[in-house]
Amino acid sequence: MQRSGSLSQIVLVLYHVAIAACAKLLSGGTIIAFDQETEELKVIRNGSVLIDGDRIVSVSDIASPFDVPAGGRTVFKTMGSNTTLADYGSRYSALVAAPLFTPDDLYISQLAGIYEAMAAGVTTIVDHAHHTWTPDTSAAGLRASVDSGARMYWAYTFQNSSAEFGIPEQIAQWKELAASMTSNLTQLAIAYDDFTTNPTGADTLAVADLIRESKSLLTTHHVEGPWLLGNSPEDLHRVGVLNSSTPVVIAHAAFLDVRGAGLLRSTNQHISITAESEMHYGHLHPTSHLIMDQASLGVDTHMTFSTDILTQARLWLQSTRYRVYQNTIDRFQVPAQNPFSVNQAFLLATRNGGLAVGRKDLGVIALGAQADLVVWEGRSPGMLGWTDPVAAVILHASVGDITHVLIGGTFKKRDGRLVDARYYDEVQDRFLASARRIQKVLKDTPLPSQEGSFLTGTPYGYVMQLDAKRGEGTGYGPSFV
Ligand SMILES: *[C@@H]1O[C@H](CO)[C@@H](O)[C@H](O)[C@H]1NC(C)=O
Ligand SMILES: *[C@@H]1O[C@H](CO)[C@@H](O)[C@H](O)[C@H]1NC(C)=O
Ligand SMILES: *[C@@H]1O[C@H](CO)[C@@H](O)[C@H](O)[C@H]1NC(C)=O
Ligand SMILES: *[C@@H]1O[C@H](CO)[C@@H](O)[C@H](O)[C@H]1NC(C)=O
Ligand SMILES: *[C@@H]1O[C@H](CO)[C@@H](O)[C@H](O)[C@H]1NC(C)=O
């Protein structure tokens, strides 16, 4: 399962949480709010947030002014600690993984993965759901998403899964699922990766029609450079799905050029920079820092790395600073400024995720916004002593410092524990049983050899191996799987 465009909202050090019926008051903490007029972050110290139902009804600079009214794929975890993108494609990706999963494995893996994200402070998920291999795996993935209680754009991937269950059959199932959706938090969306490989085929035209008719969010993967994986903004525009109010989230958008970036700006569509994935697998993101005004942050295959947006923000901030400083250093000069602020990293992790899914009411603490809140323990060993709350979160906090997570005004994590904790014990046991069985199959499968060319025809190239021990060729050592 790949995820992109996730986001979280953040509150710091809230000392008191009062709850009565559906109204909740979080008070006595520092709030990183959003000023809708100036479009800037606004820090409120010792303030409070009042939630009624699923909305923020007041954000105040007074600690306690109100009377509270009465009233997927995650099973592969640690199996790919040193994979490349090409390895990933031939060993773990959608159609390779398909035979390993029963609908039950899929359900429990999806649920465990979403709990992992919610515990880590992710309040909205766009899931590029690759697990649409059969009608039963598709239904299981959607059911797990709804059951999880997450705010979710579950993007059904239209792909050539098998001769019997091709794209026309998948579109028919999508329509049936759409007709029976009753959840307020989970929305059916669309994922498609064949805009370039099959630009005028009947399948692509049918998917484009569905996007236009249903106005459902589209997500796709765009990775160019030597990878040649297509789905550029230009290719999406050509089939008429980019220039409308229907949101499009382009994952990675690695090697975006001036034309593509301009098209995203003029159509107000967003990319999802999955910083950790792009560094881990080697697809890179050489130009993404030049289009941050149309960017959000995302998490990729979290079997191999972290699932939280905070880590993405920190990695993206520091690696981008490195990239930009390098330019000055390369001119034999000493950097005179810092190029990229913690406030910008914070906005990418929160508000820009909301904008990417076309929602001004997500990713911000502001009047009328959805009450999606993350509460950090400001007296944790890592954060103790902060004065700038934005810097405290972006540079010092860890996921372990998150005490509460609320989505749509409902606690999902409270006092450091998932709210469904007892139920979660059972999910863990079922998940581990599936994971052990599937991991065994993978352990018994030889690693792929990357010789000759990548699937798009580009030749594989030599990668220098690094050593942390003295001597020639001490290399990786074993993977402990
Ligand atoms: C926060 O404000 C309340 C009153 O609104 C006050 O009693 C309390 O001492 C303040 N706390 C801090 C840390 O300033
Ligand atoms: C899926 O397979 C069918 C039959 O082989 C083919 O006509 C169609 O173009 C394929 N679709 C995509 C998106 O590759
Ligand atoms: C969805 O929201 C509506 C209106 O806010 C509410 O009446 C309904 O009970 C909600 N449904 C679910 C499944 O939460
Ligand atoms: C997008 O559509 C608007 C009108 O709906 C048009 O003015 C604009 O030129 C279009 N942009 C592109 C890039 O096609
Ligand atoms: C990963 O490490 C294993 C040894 O544990 C090695 O056999 C494999 O070739 C490595 N993979 C890559 C892509 O370097």
TrEMBL record:
<feature type="signal peptide">
    <location>
        <begin position="1"/>
        <end position="22"/>
    </location>
</feature>
<feature type="domain" description="Amidohydrolase-related">
    <location>
        <begin position="101"/>
        <end position="410"/>
    </location>
</feature>
<dbReference type="InterPro" id="IPR051607">
    <property type="entry name" value="Metallo-dep_hydrolases"/>
</dbReference>
<dbReference type="InterPro" id="IPR011059">
    <property type="entry name" value="Metal-dep_hydrolase_composite"/>
</dbReference>
<dbReference type="InterPro" id="IPR006680">
    <property type="entry name" value="Amidohydro-rel"/>
</dbReference>
<dbReference type="InterPro" id="IPR032466">
    <property type="entry name" value="Metal_Hydrolase"/>
</dbReference>
<protein>
    <submittedName>
        <fullName>5-methylthioadenosine/S-adenosylhomocysteine deaminase</fullName>
    </submittedName>
</protein>
<dbReference type="Pfam" id="PF01979">
    <property type="entry name" value="Amidohydro_1"/>
</dbReference>
<keyword id="KW-0378">Hydrolase</keyword>
<keyword id="KW-0732">Signal</keyword>
<keyword id="KW-0862">Zinc</keyword>
<keyword id="KW-0479">Metal-binding</keyword>
